[in-house]
Structures are given as structure tokens and as C-alpha cells.
Amino acid sequence: MSRPMWFVLAGGGTGGHLFPALAVVAELRALTGSQDGVEVSFFCTPRPIDAHVLGAAQVEAIPQQVRPFSGRPWRWPAFWRAWRGSVAVCRQMFRHRRPAAVVGAGGYASGPAVRAALDAGVPTFLLNPDAVPGRANRHFARHKGLAGIFAQWAVTRDHLPAAAPVAVTGCPVRRTFLEAGGRDRDELVRLFDLQPGRRLLLVTGASQGARTINEAMAALADRLDWTGWQVLHLAGQADVARVSAAYGRADRMRGGMARVLPFTDRMAEAVAAADLVISRAGASTLAEILVLGKPSVLLPYPYHRDNHQRRNAEVLAGAGAAVLVDDARDTEVNCRVLEAVLSQLMHDDVQRDAMARSALSLGRPDAGRRIAQRLLDAARTSTDPACEF
């Protein structure tokens, strides 16, 4: 009796690298009929988020010793030792059992498994949710043996070799987001102890919060016209008390109009309930906003050298789905810009509706299913994908 097909994913270290890949895993399991229809291993980083997220998804986690490449020459020997060791482990495992396909989910931890798979002639793919590919994906995109690159947006083609096998599929999102879009909005609002009769502004800075966004919104709590509105603000553990106190002191905010949390494990419900979202511009976060058709104000993370989040935000802003605000890293400057933007958007139903329609037109709810089907097709046409030797 043959064993189930074995799919290998590689990457991790952040939710942006983990969640899209796990959305594909869920679709692989659905397409093959059960969780036992395929076996999945995730070659990941040693960071705690990887073990936590992969464990919750019932996916085997294989931490690697590989580390990020450093621009400091004295760190190169340690990088190359870790790289060679991780590639050797992958090669050894793939000799013992050939994967049906390997998918690089992005980041430095994707490299060793992708390298070993390409050398072994295993069907090898890359997930590329960001508008501009990162270093690892740019490197592997030049390899003639690469089977495919799954991009969120067509603009990615402009940053890769003309011959790169790019397929614009969208970015896979978790099923909880697809399901939340069909739920009753009043029910979703009540989950957060807020009022169904008011519009909802969702402010989020990802799992750790965003200090500059928190500071700006705390200062704006008593400057915005909140008539008909309320706010759900995910501030991160470090800032939750200070942000909550700022809303509590604001004369323009009445009781029950603000809910400040460090984070929520009901992110899909929070986005689905929102009438307007303020957020960073991570690729997977934007994919979630788009599939739910939400207008947004995006403040890309300002500390990345390559400003890749800004390039993501430009896609949405260019389509009329979002307003892009450059994070000045200065509270008063951010306040002035955000006050002008929010004073307009919060009280212009027509503009928000138009933005929502544009967002929905960019969303690709079928991305995970399309990618999973492509992996299965590649596995079934490759040579004896489940063989051991």
C-alpha cells in the first residue's frame, strides 16, 4: 500500500510567511479528502511562533539551523556553516523519501529545502505574496528547474526575469477569513462587546502592535468626530494600557465606543465586522483585507530598508482600494495626516463603498485552492513522487 504524498513547505519566522502556506495546506487536505490524504512537513525557523502556529495546524515542524544572511563580513563564516548544514539535512531527508513537491514560503528559512529540491529534480515552487520579491525568491527565480512562482499581484513580474514561471494566483488566506465574510455583521460586532448600530474602525498593527500607529491614534482620540463610529484597537501588549487610557480620557468618546485589546485570535471576525481598517501593509494582511472587501488606510512599516510594505500598499492605493499614508515616525506629523484622511473617510459613505468595491475586485479567495491544485497536478505527473530509496 503506497504512502500518502509528502509535501514539504519551507520558511517561517513570521505569520506572513506561515499563514499563506498553511492556507495551502488546508486546501491540499480538502482536495485529497481528509487530513490523512497528504503528509506535510514544514522546514521552519527555531522561533517560538513557528512551533505554536504549526502545532495548532497539526503540521510537522522541522526547525533548521540556517540563519539570515548578514551584510557584515565577519558573520559570513557562521552563515555559510549553518547554510551548508541545513542543505545537507534536507538532501539527506529527500534521499530517504522523495517529496511530491516543495514550496518555499518566503524568508531565509525557505532556502535550504528549495535548494535541495531543485538539485534533486523535485517539483519546486515559490510563494511570493509581496509586490516586490525578497532576496531568496529573486535568487531562486533564475533557476531553470523552478516549476512555478505564485504571486499575489501582476506587478511582481516586473521584478523577476522575463522567463520566470510566474502565475498570478493571489495570496492564500485562511478559511476563517473566507467564512467570516458570510457571517452576520451584528453578531461579529457583539463578539467584541461593541454596538452593532455604530460603524466600526479597526486599528491593527499586527500581533505585536505598531507603536507609531498607537501613538497617533491615542493623540487623535479627542480630535476626531466619532459621531456614529466606534473603534476596535489592537494595540499590542506593550501599549494596550496607555492606548486604552487615551480613549478613556477623550471627551468625544462616550462609554462603550472603544475596545482596546493587546491582540485577538478572532482576527477574521474583526476584519469582517469593520467598516474601515487602519493597518500596516504586510502582504498576507492585505490579502485578508481584500478578500473581505474592506476600505483601508495603510501605514507601511517604515523601518525596512527595502520599503517592501510600501510597494504592497501602492497596489491597493493605485486601484482605489486604500489610502496610503507614509509613517513619518513622528506623532504630530502622523496625527495631522491621519486626522485629515479619517475626517474625510469616516463621514463619506460613498467613498468608502467605492473603496470596498475596489478591494473586493482585487481579492482572490480562490488562491489557496488554485495553488493546492497546481501542487497536486505537479505531484501526480512527476516520477513516483512518494517513493522511498
Sheet with the most strands, sense and barrel status: 7 strands, parallel
Question: What is the CA-atom radius of gyration, in angstroms?
Answer: 22 Å
Determine the strand fraction and express it as a percent band: 15-25%
Helical content stands at 40-55%
CATH domain fold name of the largest domain: Rossmann fold
- Span of the ends, CA to CA: 16 Å
CATH superfamily of the largest domain: Glycogen Phosphorylase B
CATH architecture of the largest domain: 3-Layer(aba) Sandwich
Question: What coarse outline follows from CA principal-axis ratios?
Answer: globular
How many structural domains does the protein architecture include?
A: 2
Q: How many individual β-strands?
A: 13
Strand order of the largest sheet: 3-2-1-4-5-6-7
Spans where pLDDT lies below 50 across 5 or more residues: 385-389
Question: Number of helical segments?
Answer: 15
Question: Could you say which structural class the secondary elements and strand pairing correspond to?
Answer: alpha/beta
Order of helices and strands: EHEHEHEHEHEEHHEHEHEHEHEHEHHH
* Average of pLDDT: 93
